[in-house]
């Protein structure tokens, strides 16, 4: 009976492996989801759609890291100075200094537990000032990032807007930003690290199933 069950078990394993590969391949990135929400809101308000720039997204992640996990400093005096963009943020991302463009808007939010993109959007757009930043006609591109601290909370979300020229501003050397994990940023096809990752959960499920199936095949 154990031998007869083997084809069925093998089929189940194959289905799980394909599902996991699909989940990992989707590279579900909450920073990209936030950019999608931003553009949907802008176009609904007759504002232009913004280009999702991976170099700017990586810099948004560096912007978060400048706070060193201090959630209570958001909105305070710890705002990174403008020189940080060329001195620290751009080099850490591999963004060419000559391609930096003006930052036309910044949105930042933080809370102890992880907020999904829709909730993060509501946190970021919490008043009239932030709504004006969102709908500004000065923006042409956007970059977003999210990360936790030491593998957990607090969780920061950051959105940077720019008036740069898409495809020529915030240009990344070699076309791929430097490794900036933990965290996720928009515009790159990278899997999320340090926030929410679907791939990890999928492969954990497969590992557990492999163990169970190994036991079944020995019966």
UniProtKB/TrEMBL annotation:
UniProt keyword list: Signal
Superkingdom to which the source organism belongs: Eukaryota
Signal sequence region: 1-23
Family matches, as Gene3D superfamilies: CAP
Keyword Cytoplasm: no
Listed PANTHER family: OS08G0459300 PROTEIN
Name of the featured protein: Ferredoxin-like protein
Organism encoding this protein: Triticum aestivum (Wheat)
